[in-house]
Write a structure and sequence with these properties.
Structural class: alpha+beta
Helix content: 40-55%
Number of strands: 9
CATH class of the largest domain: Mainly Alpha
Order of helices and strands: HHHHHHHHHHHHEEEEEHEEEEH
Number of domains: 2
Largest sheet: 5 strands, mixed
Strand content: 5-15%
CATH topology of the largest domain: Endonuclease III, domain 1
Bound molecules: iron/sulfur cluster
CATH superfamily of the largest domain: Hypothetical protein, domain 2
Number of helices: 14
Shape: globular
Radius of gyration: 24 Å
CATH architecture of the largest domain: Orthogonal Bundle
Length: 346
């Protein structure tokens, strides 16, 4: 496939695009600070630029450098991350900062292999940090770059499959400029985000249009191939609302899994037996929360009984004042529900 494009001429087109039209003024541009670059790369995984900007600024204000982040409480980190989703990123961010502090004397490592050993840093993120912060000739392959390459070279198959992913990595390694790697990588990210969009790509503005296989073969809507469809799973739970003098009982979720380490309402998975047990409690409006891989149907119940305080563990349960909220990480549907309860009490 690469016979269509000589790597050098591909890189030349991409770099020319960067100099002419590439994005150069986002808050994490114009810096070589690996901490800032790493933070932005982690936040940008699965999240759009406009959503990331305020979180990135808030984080830098609270933790101006990697040591501030490493020394912070995880609860504080999760609190600042609340609403950004994919919370394992925040937990890994905290762990990785501690690893930089404890195993690398507070300095980010520069090699691809050492960067990849940090929690939450995969091959593409390590490549981005190595290229942007340390001017290394490292390739990247984030979601945007995958789409550009899959279309430009008409790569068959879904890139969740190892052989397809390996093919894309081979292409990225071959095509990446060894001299102007940072400009090349930035331009590829920009092309995917701004020009070669998932829907309605702007091919007339694309520097790769002349030899793009998807465009030539009229297969843009088909490429890249989507994940084969399976029935979407779902789960139903009760959230138990214990309200006492303007305070709500919150429970800390287990450290891993969905919303790991965040504070939520006590949760019970709904089964026939459980339904009977809670049938007399007042149910508030149901909430549908869509995760990337399943739907969660939440049925909040206003509990009449008091919780069994004797079994409360202070490290995993606490009373949360609606009038004076604590700085703890809350999943978005929990903070929305607490806000709704507060308004009803006012
Ligand atoms: S020509 Fe169109 S489909 Fe091909 S890479 Fe450019 S924007 Fe994407």
């Amino acid at each position: 496939m690469t016979s269509e494009w000589k790597p050098r001429s591909f890189a030349k087109q991409v770099i020319a695009y960067y100099h002419e039209k590439g994005r150069k003024d986002l808050p994490w541009h114009n810096t070589k600070d690996p901490y800032r670059i790493w933070l932005s790369e982690i936040m940008l995984q699965q999240t759009q630029v406009k959503t990331v900007i305020p979180y990135y600024q808030k984080f830098l204000k609270a933790f101006p450098n990697v040591l501030d982040l490493a020394n912070a409480e995880l609860d504080e980190v999760l609190h600042l991350w609340s609403g950004l989703g994919y919370y394992s990123r925040a937990r890994n961010l905290h762990k990785a900062a501690q690893m930089v502090r404890d195993e690398h004397q507070g300095e980010f490592p520069q090699s691809q292999a050492e960067l990849e050993s940090l929690p939450g840093v995969g091959r593409s993120t390590a490549g981005a940090i190595a290229a942007f912060a340390f001017d290394k000739p490292a390739a990247i392959l984030d979601g945007n770059v995958k789409r550009v390459l899959a279309r430009c070279f008409a790569i068959e198959g879904w890139y969740g499959q190892t052989k397809v992913l390996n093919k894309l990595w081979d292409l990225s390694e071959k095509l990446t400029s060894k001299n102007e790697t940072a400009a090349f990588n930035q331009a590829m990210m920009d092309l995917g985000a701004v020009v070669c969009k998932r829907n309605k790509p702007l091919c007339s503005e694309c520097p790769l249009a002349q030899k793009c296989q998807a465009l030539q073969q009229d297969r843009i809507a088909e490429l890249p191939h989507r994940k084969p469809k399976k029935a979407r799973p779902s789960k139903s739970v009760y959230w138990l609302i214990y309200l006492d003098k303007g305070q709500i009982l919150l429970q800390k979720r287990p450290p891993s899994g969905i919303w790991g380490g965040l504070w939520s309402l006590p949760e019970i998975e709904i089964e026939a037996k459980v339904q009977k047990q809670y049938s007399s409690e007042r149910q508030l409006d149901a909430i549908l929360h869509k995760f990337s891989h399943y739907d969660l149907h939440i049925y909040p119940l206003l509990m009449q009984k008091k919780p069994n305080i004797s079994i409360m563990e202070p490290s995993s349960q606490q009373w949360y004042s609606l009038a004076e909220p604590l700085s703890v990480g809350l999943p978005t549907p929990v903070s929305n529900l607490l806000e709704q309860l507060k308004q009803n009490l006012d």
